[in-house]
């Protein structure tokens, strides 16, 4: 009785997996490849060619419409109060670390090397200025045409301390910083109509009706006591002639030097910089029109 049962089991045993796989890939009895005939595969291939061709054509058409007819190519679509910045450019101070702290030792310039490189790169890339080890700086030829068009003799303030010879003041314990206003398309600074409109913290003697006033100060009382003196170059701020930014060829951003003189060593000093014009809206929560940074000099 056992032998017939064993024979019956052997007769119904399924073929091994590799044989089933081989038959699935190509079945000579039904002339199919992976369960489909050549005619079926041709229909599927034709369907997907047509489907993806239509999909690609629609995507290309929508890109063309938005890129060349809806979104302007030479200017942002949202400007002024409709933009993310609400029509108010931000303020930039360079150099600055990722955490906002500037720390270095006067007797060990290795710590200050990254900051010096940041200033050098900022001058070259943003303002077209190349500074040399002998203390001289010159503006790039293509940028010079733009500055000449503004009828300005110089793009940047010349000062004997804020140059590469002194490592922009870092090697003598009087570091220099670049302060500039971000480029916002078609933003025009407006002068104050009267001195009474100027915020009380901004020194009136430094106000110039054709310039953006820049003012930096210690954030709290201990910071004011430890900050020392700040020198501005030029004292009037950033000239209006460099605005508005309209995507001009070889456009040059103007800036102001600030130099910290007499800052108390071994103490972290918090400094806040602001710019002052009539149409400068206050957005403290978004930190748009001012910038805070920290300085520690050993």
From TrEMBL:
Which GO BP annotation is one of this protein's? potassium ion import across plasma membrane
Name the principal localization, coarsely classed.
membrane
Among Pfam families, the record links this protein to: Na_K-ATPase (PF00287)
The protein's location, in the record's own words, is: Membrane
Q: How does it sit in the membrane?
A: Single-pass type II membrane protein
Report the GO terms under cellular component. Answer: sodium:potassium-exchanging ATPase complex
**InterPro entries xref list:** Na/K_ATPase_sub_beta, Na/K_ATPase_sub_beta_sf
UniProt xrefs under PROSITE patterns: ATPASE_NA_K_BETA_1
GO molecular function terms noted in the UniProt entry: ATPase activator activity
In terms of Gene3D superfamilies, this protein maps to: Na, k-atpase alpha subunit
Q: Which UniProt keywords apply?
A: Membrane, Signal-anchor, Transmembrane, Transmembrane helix
Q: Which residues cross the membrane?
A: 44-66
| Family assignment from sequence similarity | Belongs to the X(+)/potassium ATPases subunit beta family.
Record-linked PANTHER family? NA_K-ATPASE BETA SUBUNIT ISOFORM 4-RELATED, SODIUM/POTASSIUM-DEPENDENT ATPASE BETA SUBUNIT
Mind telling me what this protein is named? Answer: Sodium/potassium-transporting ATPase subunit beta-1-like
Q: What organism is the protein native to? A: Octopus sinensis
The record lists the lineage as: Eukaryota, Metazoa, Spiralia, Lophotrochozoa, Mollusca
């Amino acid at each position: 009785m056992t032998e017939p049962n064993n024979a019956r089991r052997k007769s119904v045993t399924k073929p091994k997996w590799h044989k089933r796989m081989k038959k699935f890939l190509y079945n000579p009895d039904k002339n199919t490849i992976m369960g489909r005939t050549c005619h079926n595969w041709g229909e599927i291939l034709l369907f997907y060619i047509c489907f993806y061709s239509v999909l690609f054509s629609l995507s290309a058409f929508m890109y063309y419409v938005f890129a060349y007819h809806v979104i302007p190519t030479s200017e942002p679509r949202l400007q002024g109060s409709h933009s993310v910045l609400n029509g108010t450019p931000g303020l930039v101070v360079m150099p600055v670390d990722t955490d906002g702290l500037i720390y270095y030792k006067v007797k060990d310039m290795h710590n200050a090397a990254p900051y010096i490189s940041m200033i050098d790169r900022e001058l070259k890339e943003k303002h077209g200025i190349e500074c040399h080890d002998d203390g001289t700086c010159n503006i790039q030829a293509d940028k010079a045409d733009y500055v000449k068009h503004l009828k300005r003799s110089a793009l940047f303030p010349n000062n004997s301390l804020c140059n590469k010879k002194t490592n922009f003041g870092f090697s003598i314990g009087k570091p220099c910083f670049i302060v500039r206003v971000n480029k916002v398309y078609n933003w025009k600074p407006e002068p104050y109509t009267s001195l009474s409109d100027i915020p009380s913290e901004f020194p009136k003697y430094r106000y110039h009706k054709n310039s953006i006033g820049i003012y930096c100060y210690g954030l709290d009382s201990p910071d004011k006591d430890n900050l020392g003196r700040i020198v501005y170059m030029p004292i009037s701020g950033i000239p209006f002639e460099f605005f508005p930014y309209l995507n001009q060829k070889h456009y040059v951003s103007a800036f102001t030097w600030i130099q910290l003189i007499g800052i108390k060593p071994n103490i972290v000093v918090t400094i806040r910089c602001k710019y002052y014009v009539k149409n400068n809206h206050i957005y403290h929560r978004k930190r748009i029109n001012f910038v805070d940074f920290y300085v520690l000099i050993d």
